Amino acid sequence: MILRLLSAALAAGFLAAVVATGLQLVLTSPLIVAAERYETQASAPSAPGLIQPAHVHLAHDHGHAAPGEAREWQPAPGLQRAAFTGLATLVGAVGYALLLGAVMLAVGREPTPESALGFAVAGFLAVALAPAVGLPPELPGSEAAPLAARQAWWVMTAVSTALGLYLILVRRVAITILGGLVLIVGPHLAGAPEAAETKTALPAGLAAQFAARSLGVSFVTWAVIGLAFGWCWQMFGRERANA
């Protein structure tokens, strides 16, 4: 059972990562490059002879280090960035596929392409769409709340939404449906952490386009994970039965 789960998760995660990486390179990577240009222009020093504000030389929240401080390593644009993007996507997709299969088996649902797709859509709602209501995907150069606060709220929202969907869609009784709704709405009533400042050089349309495309890529990734995992689970089961 465990070997079958791991095999199906690896195969589904790899297929989903290939699709997602291709979509990212076409849809979201150009927007990231454009945002980095805006950020570079905004942080560029003024022309010689002009008085420069004191904060120009200080490190700020977007990863630029002050003189004498170590800069955070980032992959170089081009092939290196594409390779690291693909690797990170692969690790995430395999992890999500493994989690999807484990949850389905834990609640007693036989993975098929149809049933796994339904659970995958629930996964997208829990870890992508629900957190994006309060913390949409952000481009480089966007003002944001402290990382620890955002991570804590994201985890709380994802877990609460997942539990809420489980109570509503799996348990399906009045009291659990009510409890599920409370869990789903609760994090949003508490509110996502907000940035202290909202000034940014990025056009609002560019940020909105990136958020929409990122969510679209995430949905496709989850859908491929669900369909591929269900199909691989059935295929590996038939091979084991015929062995």
UniProtKB/TrEMBL annotation:
Instruction: Enumerate the UniProt keywords alphabetically.
Output: Membrane, Transmembrane, Transmembrane helix
> What is the top-level taxon of the source organism?
Bacteria
Q: Where are the transmembrane segments?
A: 82-107, 116-135, 147-168, 173-190, 210-233
Q: Which Pfam families match?
A: CbtA
Would you tell me the protein name for this molecule?
Cobalt transporter
